[in-house]
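just leaving the lab so this will be short. below you get a single protein, a line of residues and a line of whole numbers that encode the local backbone shape. id like you to explain what the token line says about the fold, in plain words if possible. thanks a lot i owe you, the record is right below:

…
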Amino acid sequence: MKILITGGAGYIGSHTCVELLNKNNELIIVDNLSNSKYEAIKRIKQISGKEVKFYHTDILNEIEMDIIFQENNIEAVIHFAGSKAVGESCQIPLEYYKNNVTGSIKLFQMMQKHNVKKLVFSSSATVYGLNDNVPFKEEFPLSATNPYGRTKLMIEEILRDLYSSDNFWQISLLRYFNPVGAHPSGLLGEDPQGIPNNLMPFISQVAVGKLEKLRIFGNDYPTKDGTGVRDYIHVVDLAKGHLKALEKLREGHGCQPYNLGSGEGNSVLEVIQAFEEASNKKIPYEIVERRAGDIATSFADPSKANSKLEWKTKKTLLEMCADSWNWQRKNPKRY
């Protein structure tokens, strides 16, 4: 299958490209490299031993996107491209709405123009808002607490409306929980700019000596040890979920959401303990005040993806930490 991957040089996109190439798909990657590096494209080729077409452009660029669709007989799209930092989205909301919502609309219009109606969309568990009724199920009411989350929710609504208007579309909405880990080769991994927003790369940078200590936001939650509990999923397991979602689209039309998570929650202190075991490094930390908007516990009910997509996570928290550490120590200065 010939597949267009938007944001294919990013963290989840690059790992998904490797899994797609392992299954002999042809890839066309579009990325503006605003939050990623071309080095990731080279490493995708290195790991897979296969070539990909790469276009350094933005999905907002209608002229160039039109050329890409004209030049390639695209059969399906996996849409990762977008801005993704919650804190930053609160500071520059208009940029997030432009990049994520307007960019997505332009992409969907281009797909419609070229009669490409198979789509896997990279959504997020943020669409469940401040719901504290765990595990999260796909049929729960949806809401968002920040501009980033609202962009994901808006795009989901747009896609549901698009399917209602034309039921020849085949759409999977993949709601990720907390992707962590890296490719076992150590060639691909999470490569945040500046101080990381997410727990695992922050721990990794403390372990490698780049940051002094980890800050834990609150230890007074009603959880097993007082720290926040989240559903962590290895990025390779997550990437394989996209292949399963793509296979499902071949079966018929529809617009379906799927939770991609392990169905289990681990606390911040449990992640630290597992990382220390995997890396043989001590992770110093301090407890600071809770962050506004954080909930105590978040984890998925992945039963729909388990049954409908025939997908489930396989890698353990220890493996997630080991692969994160392998990536960090091999790439101390990023890509």
Notes: The longest strand covers residues 118-124.
